[in-house]
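Support request, priority: normal
Reporter: lab tech (M.K.)
Component: structure prediction queue

Hi team, I submitted a job for protein-tyrosine-phosphatase from Brugia timori yesterday, and the status page still shows it as pending. I've pasted the exact input below so you can check whether something in the sequence is tripping the parser. The sequence length should be 190 residues. Please let me know if I need to resubmit or if it's stuck on your end.
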Amino acid sequence: MNGALNIYDPVVLENTFFPDCSTKFKIMAKKIPIFYCEYSSARGPMLASHLRKSDRVRNYSKYPFLYYNEIYVLQGGYNAFYNTDDNCFKDLCEPIGYVSMRDKKHSDVLKTYHMHNMRNGVGFETGMFQTAVIRKNTNFRRTYSVPQMPESPTASEFSSERSPEKIRPEIATVPMLANPRTPTGRKNTR
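Reply from support: The job had stalled in the queue. We restarted it manually and it finished. Here are the results:
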């Protein structure tokens, strides 16, 4: 699409929407992000969610204020956008044409994307949020805190100074989800 940015890395996403330069940030914050991937079923919604969570972390003390009040995911993705019945949006596509992400011409790029996600480890989460692990074929759901590395590009003022070996999931705090009635937000394990 004309003017679209190809962003699949959460670090690049944060650097794009929250640049260090205040002038660039003011320009970017006036825009309304619209996320999509081929079908808007996985990557687009995950990146939209990551932007929202990152915005919430940055504005934790100013709740409910957000820099990006409106974030959209294109229903049906690029596939539905390009293949409308009356072809009214094709002039907004650059180049004019539709190539599936599974096309053999782009197999190397797709492999790079998958390799990047496997190396990332934390996925699209900032490390500040709980990650739900759902076991296949069971009704069991566990939630773990994912400790954040201080040298992480997404590290914030909430990141722990302790090494990850010393952080135990049962005592790790998650600032955005902590219980405000307890002084530390930690669960009482007694």
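The CA atoms of residues 28 and 109 lie 27 Å apart. Residues 118-190 have pLDDT under 50 and may be disordered. Let us know if anything else looks off. Ticket resolved.
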